[in-house]
Amino acid sequence: MTENEARRYIEDLFRMVSTTSILVIDSKGVLHRLNCPFRVYAVVDVPPEIKEGNHYLVDAVRLSIDIKDVFIIKGKGYYIWGFLILLE
Question: In Å, how far from its chain's centre is CA 21?
Answer without folding.
Answer: 9
